[in-house]
Amino acid sequence: MRQKEQLQIEIETLTATKEDLGQRLETANETTTWYKINNELLSVTEQLRIKREELEKIESAAGTAIEAITSELEAINIGGEILSLTDFCQTEEHAQLLSLWLKTRDVQKAEAQAVLEASYQSEIAAQKAAILELEVHRKESIHLSELLADMTARRDAAGEELLHANEEIARLTKDNESLRKQFETKPTTNTPQIDAAEIIRKIQAAKPGIYNKRWKISERGLEDRRYFTANLSETGEELHIPILDIGKYREETADEAARFRAEMAQKEMEKLVQETIDHVEAPPLPETDAQLSTESSDREVDEEKVGRAEFEKLVERVVTLEKQAVMRGAA
């Protein structure tokens, strides 16, 4: 009976704990806190289920034992003759006392057996719960390891970028000192005027243009912040650029990239037209009026043939370039 009372106390305690965790879970704001409380709630719920099953088994075992001993005392078979417990006692009271003693004995045995079985099952369930908890910790450890690896990669990339930046600063400082010394040694009247903004503009204009810059997405769907992904302005081709090489490119908007491709196509068409014009050579001038009359008619025919053929090729090339410019602008 003590085991049964102990189980009832444990069930009441676990029930109160479950209600408290449920209220805390509803008011949890941070994700980490929510998961922690939820794991505790799942563990308490499982323990409560196990304890209730143990109590049910003990109560069921006691009832089964009482029914069994009652049936036995009411149908004692001796040599084929069925007798009851009262047949062996002087009075009904004596029979009731003996029956109570036998029932109590068997009930205690049944309860002890049920407690032992419940204890084994409780231990098995606790081991299963521990295995599940270990699995949760294992998955969390893997997640933290991936985060640590990502942070380490970012730290290394930032360290390399800082190293290159320091080297670039040292180089620029050295160049600046060299230029300063050159200016100091030259006469003031001969000192050239340097437009720093124009130099910077030319340097930037010489870099390949890119647009739609974003972090590279790895095969696992995570951001790989060691690389940028961007599209080349000239062709629209997608590139994966190391973070330390991004300074070698000129960042543009998508509209600027489309305008750049259109300008390149226009220049290419103008160049083609000029090449076509340069390719058509003027015929030599005739020496006499007779040659002028004769060669004039022949030249008109030849020029008409050559000019027509060159014109058709030019028109075909211009149409092709316009289509390519439209497609690149759409990209």
Beta content:
5-15%
What is the β-strand count? 6
Helix proportion of residues, in percent?
over 70%
Structural category: alpha+beta
User: How many independent structural domains?
Assistant: 3
Tell me what the structure shows.
By secondary structure, the protein is an alpha+beta fold. It folds into three domains: 2-153, no CATH class; 201-252, no CATH class; 253-331. It has helices at 2-27, 31-74, 92-185, 196-206, 254-279, 289-330; strands spanning 76-78, 81-83, 209-217, 223-232, 238-242, 250-251. The strands form two sheets. The protein has a four-stranded mixed sheet. A hairpin with a 2-residue loop joins strand 1 (76-78) and strand 2. The two termini are 82 Å apart. 7% of the residues are buried. The model has no long low-confidence stretch (mean pLDDT 76).
Quick rundown:
By secondary structure, this protein is of the alpha+beta class. It has helices at residues 2-27, 31-74, 92-185, 196-206, 254-279, 289-330; strands spanning 76-78, 81-83, 209-217, 223-232, 238-242, 250-251. The longest helix is centred in the middle third of the chain and has 94 residues, at 92-185.
